[in-house]
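Case study 2.
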Amino acid sequence: MNLNLIKSLVHEAATKAGFDAALEKVHVEKTKNLEHGHFASNIAMILAKSAGKNPREVAEAIISNLENENLEKVEIAGPGFINLFMSPAFFQQEFKALVENTDDYLKDVLGFTPEAKTMAIDTSHPNIAKPMGVHHLLSTIIGASIVNIYKKAGWKVVNDNYLGDYGTQFGKLIHAIKTWGDQAKIEANPIDELQALYVKFHEEVENDDALEDKGRAEFKKLEEGDAENRELWQKIKEWSMMEFNEMYDRLGVKFDYINGESTYEDKMEPILEAGRKSGVIEDGEGGAWIIKAEDPDAVPIMVRKSDGATLYMTRDLARVKYWDNEWNPDIMVNVVDVAQSLYFKQLEEARQKLGLTDAPTIHVDFGRMQFPDGAMSTRKGNIIKLIDVLDEAEERALKLVQEKGAELSEEEQKDLASVMGIGAIKYNILSQNRVNNITFDWDKMLAFEGNSAPYLMYTYTRTKSVLEKADSLGGDLNPKEPQELALALQLLMLPDALQRAEEEFKPNHIANYLYELTQLYNTMYNALPILKAEDEARMTRLALTNATGLVLKEGLALLGIEVPKKM
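Prediction:
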């Protein structure tokens, strides 16, 4: 018995009562007040509309067909809510399954089958030769959490970082390196020097229009396989990946593949030829090649410029086809900010018209990063560098740790500052609904109170401390006090949070769940004795403490956040 099975139970009872109820319409949730039961469903009010009956009358008919050994009592409340009271045996068996093997429990609840579905996903995708900025955090962190969530839900996931490593801008950079570059200086500080050279190219263009043509000519040579330009371009990629990998290591983010745009330079032509042959790709204005949108008022989808050059869209279509050939995914996901919404609608329409894959291309969008005061107190520059943000997070965390962690050694303080600083950044992003603009707030993210990583981490270490003193993980669960029961119910809602996060591609459902769990545990901790409680109550509260620590660690891992050993 779990939340999905409770839904099935209510659905079966409604069907037996003669109502045409689709399973997806059956909504069951944890009650806000334990006096009204443990779970509640509004299905009677939904069915009453189509049946032309009184909701309470519908609820009565459903309840008369609702039987299960785990149901202790069922009541009708208000206009027709069905309130379900579960038996002590329900809590014991569910709790035991959750604690003994959390992975199996989650997969069982979510209906996992060995024939796992496959998701291919693109996250992070910085451009080479440029420093990773704070804006790269969103795609990288949100994407990594979605990968974790889908894996935990039983999916096979292929994480492919679609690196920006191709295009006319690299012709410009190659010209700048050849004209003004100092190889020794570039080797010593690659990204900053490459960025400075790229900026210099555009400054010089102001005085010499011919430079644009020279940049295009260098890119054409690169496309045609010129040995010198290919070698220089490869070096640019290697220099860039050295810095990117340092950032990914600090963030604890890994990729299965890093297939940049250049991967697809020899894979575009077959798609264009097939599209021309089928008539999907037509001649557009000035000799460009286009795909007409279904909406006659919509802008046509350009796949080749009038001069024969390919576009980002062309490479993306080749990527879609490559993903289909390599991994045959059920869904293809792109974690990219909301500004690209129109582009991804066009990509999905072009994918369908060209018949590249049966898998939908899903755009998981997110808002822009914003700051409470309009700026960040990081080192000055035209771009807020990711490395500066990570350094500042750890510096701020270390100051807090030094203020509060008197019993920790210097090495332990540094380790905790790293875990807490990086974790605070991730949690600050992932606890917010990704579709809104995401506020980056130092004070809030590093607070020891409220919805923050340090608060959750501190509660986790509290559970470990209690268990160490008790020298026991507790016994059978028999929650009697309201604080125990509320916590037990929240623990069993983990699969529901995971399912909602999976279905909506929203890690904030996990964060919200963990924050509520943390609040409920601390309520029990402050209201009831644990170590000094009577035997049965002591065993229940220790079991709840153990499960809270386990679920906090499991849930934070879904967000890509480590838990500290000491705090």
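The first helix runs from residue 3 to 16.
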